[in-house]
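Here is one chain, start to finish.
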Amino acid sequence: MPRYYFNFRQNGHLTPDTLGSEFLSAENAYLEAFNAAQEMWTELLSERHDPRRCSFEIHDEDGNLLFVLPFWEILESCHDYRPERPAILETFRESVATVTYLRRAHGEFLREMASAQNTLRESAALIAAPL
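Its structure:
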């Protein structure tokens, strides 16, 4: 089973995990880090430390950084950010409007590029002309 190391960073100071823990997958390691951060939140507050300035840096056995779990994500997980799903027709209309806008912007971009090329050619001709 792979071993993962949960290095703890607080206010820029890194405390390395020298023992590590075994998990079936990186996903399991992430979930454990998330649970540990939740448990540490109250303890950090009672010690008058700002948990939002802490994070876990999870490394694999080879020392490769797999992911960083900032503790402020614990707060973010408390909110229900699921937006209402728009109707399929509304989504389709938004997509068509986006494509139309992109086509128009692309055409304007090509015209501006052609104008810039003409200006460069004219400038080069002026520079090359004898005084």
